[in-house]
Amino acid sequence: MRLHFLGANKQVTGSRYRLEAAGLNILIDCGMFQERPFLKRNWNDPPFPPESIDFLLLTHAHLDHVGLVPRLVSQGFNKPIITVEPSVDLAEIVMLDAARIQEEDAQYKAKRHQKEGRRPKHTASPLYTVNDAKKALPLFRGVKFREPVQLNDQVTVTFREAGHILGSAFLEIAVKQNNATRRIVFSGDLGQWSTPLINDPTPLDTADCVVMESTYGDRSHKDAGTIEEQLANIITDTTQRGGNVVIPTFAVERAQELIYYMGKLIESQRIPTLPVYLDSPMAINVTELFHRYCRYLNEESRCNFEQRQTPDLKFPSLRLARTAKESIAINNIKGTNIILSSSGMCTGGRIKHHLRRDITNPNATILFVGYQAQGTLGRQIVNGDPEVRIHGRHWPVKAKIAQIFGMSAHGDRDDLLHWLTAAKQPPKQLFLTHGEEDAATALAATIKEKLGLKVTVPDYEQTIDLT
Question: Closest Cα partner for 340 from 392, 286, 385?
Fold first, then answer.
């Protein structure tokens, strides 16, 4: 039994693992690398023959967990892709949107080069196309939480709630060998407790080996007041200055939580009734899925969705911008507008156009509500870079830069420890992934000190013998 670490090692994105067990080759996640220093990895051939994989198991449908699935299929993979029911539809939205963005960005880049009179060595081309993404869709198979799925006579996988986004799971893989059963758990991304919309993570039960995320392993989410208080203060301040509030928004989960909070703030008159633009076709489609899969939400949200004619994710001043024409039209609207646009780390998509317009305006606020990976445009802005490069040009950062703490879909150090220590017995092997090196090593030191467990922070493409 061997485990290969093929992404999200001493970094946050690119989640991918290959498990060899009981005659099977199992791939867990197949995510896109989003940090600038690692973008070239997306273009590399996978370090295994794609046709050798028997099953692809997906923890959830964020881009850094499913973003390379279409490329893998185009390279020869054609076996079942298994994930929780909402994640099937979410993955379709995410992959098709990513393909469209890559095609559009490649076209935009080619036009810009032509306009600038540049002749680059390589023609701009997308990582994969919409057709590639569509070819992956028939391979998907949706399952329910807590129902064991038989992969062969010796191996089963059970998906349990991770509390990160709609349909997110951690995987419990049970392998029967030599009259014994070993359990390997992949945490995927673990959420916080007591958040709106989504159920809490299911506590870890038993596991011999755990692969656990460590995104916020070196910190607790800052106590800067409630999310509603922080949002209200930032929006009110920007309204008084007369600028826009531009929010780089993760289309899955973060956009829906923001809509939920803003609807409450407007209804309670804690902020003015401002136009709120959801400028992301993907986020709009995802919001519709929340209504379709409301049975997967927490009890309060499920009741609201089922019983109220105006559900939590709709309010009168919410505007949806699906088309490019509708997106461009936002720039012509006077006064203060709240603009939610993807991507959340500013790595592509419509948010770059809004940033280009507002980042030089001292009356505007650029508000970050999620993790910004090292090397991304979002990280550069949060770090206070005086100038950033957008669409081939450098722009001075004059807008006010703000962050809301505690809204992350990732649990912090205390949440991760809470989930891990719920196990009836401590795991014999513990690996920390999906976190920058400082965060992962800090969490490893905390676990060693408090729990006395042996912890490994694996390197990229490292292989571990689990037997």
Answer: 286
For every residue of 216-261, which 3-state class applies, written as one string? ECCCCCCCCCCHHHHHHHHHHHHHHHCCCEEEECCCCCHHHHHHHH
- Check whether residue 291 and residue 153 sit in a common domain: no
Q: What is the CATH number of the domain that holds 297?
A: 3.40.50.10890
Structure tokens at 111: 């036009």
Q: Which domain holds residue 350?
A: 227-403
Looking at residue 130, its pLDDT comes to 95
What mean pLDDT value characterizes the chain? 91
At residue 310, does pLDDT exceed 70? no
Q: Do residue 300 and residue 161 come from a single domain?
A: no
CA dist 279 → 246, 263, 330 (Å): 11, 17, 9
φ, ψ at 24 (rounded to 5°) = -110, 150
Mean pLDDT of 177-203: 93
Q: Is the pLDDT reported for residue 121 higher than 60?
A: no
Q: Decide the pairing of beta strands 365-368 and 400-403.
A: parallel
Place of tokens 């699935």: 69
Residue 202 has pLDDT above 90, yes or no: yes
Instruction: Give the number of domains in the chain.
Output: 2
Give the DSSP H/E element, type plus range, for residue 96: helix 85-115
Percent of the chain with pLDDT over 90: 72
d(CA 330, CA 186): 42
| CA separation for the pair 3, 426 (Å, rounded) | 19
Residues in Cβ contact with 452 at an 8 Å cutoff, skipping those fewer than 6 apart: none
Which of 403, 419, 449 is where one domain is finished? 403
Q: What is the DSSP letter of 351?
A: H
Q: Is 6 helix (H, G, I), strand (E, B) or coil?
A: coil
Report the 3 state secondary structure along 120-155. CCCCCCCCCCHHHHHHHHHHEEEECCCCCEECCCCE
Whether a cis peptide bond, with omega within 30° of 0, leads into 343 is yes
* 430-466 per-position pLDDT tens digit: 999 999 999 999 999 999 999 999 999 999 999 999 9
**H/E element, 173:** strand 169-177
| CATH code at position 108 | 3.60.15.10
Are residues 388 and 413 located together in one domain of the fold?
Answer: no
Closest CA to 414 of 457, 450, 438: 450
